Amino acid sequence: MARPRTFDEQDVIDRAMELFWTQGYETTSVTDLTSALGVHPGTLYRTFGDKHALFLRALAHYRARLADDFAPTLLEGGPVLPRIRAVLIGWIDLAVQQDQPRGCLIANTAGELLPGDEEVTLSVRGILSVVEDGFLQGLRAAARQGEISPALDLPAAAAMLTMLLEGLQVIVKADPDPRRLVSAVDTALLSLASVRD
């Protein structure tokens, strides 16, 4: 008779995501995972498959935890541009608080594993698409509310904000003063608000 599981699968995936996020995929060994997660190697393989399969589950968890709520956060009501600014500045503030800023799991993964891993590529593309669509929905709401011009190329602006977000999270990992990037965020948002019909 199989013994019942004595761990919370979602908790294990969450902690695996955090470990991959901090250490990277390649440098995180199965030994690191079993030690940090408190799961026997046999249990890890039976439950999640190999390290790669667990990493894909971690990326899916990242999407569910951080990306899928992005559009609803921007559309909670009231002015949208301040919400977009808060999201971008929030990543800068987080980097300031960390001794060794770890940036974004998706940006880190793209730099480490792409091209070359088709399953990870599809996952990363999916997450970036959700983020870009969240920006687009927010910008459409901002245009309806008169914060930005409806003449603005909103899909291009959403792609620009996605690039800004991901690029910002790469730079904060090496910048000794991430707070200086606040003015760059403000400049980008001012350029959106300054477009006229």
From TrEMBL:
Pfam families hit by this protein: TetR_C_13 (PF16925), TetR_N (PF00440)
Residue range(s) of DNA binding per entry: 29-48
Record-annotated membrane-spanning stretches: none
Alphabetized InterPro entries for the sequence: Homeodomain-like_sf, HTH_TetR, Tet_transcr_reg_TetR-rel_C_sf, TetR_C
Coiled-coil intervals, chain numbering: none
Alphabetical list of PROSITE patterns matching this protein: HTH_TETR_2
GO molecular function: DNA binding
Keyword terms of this UniProt record: DNA-binding, Transcription, Transcription regulation
Signal peptide: none
Domain HTH tetR-type: 6-66
UniProt-recorded name of the protein: TetR family transcriptional regulator
Record organism: Planotetraspora mira
Top-level taxonomy: Bacteria, Bacillati, Actinomycetota, Actinomycetes, Streptosporangiales
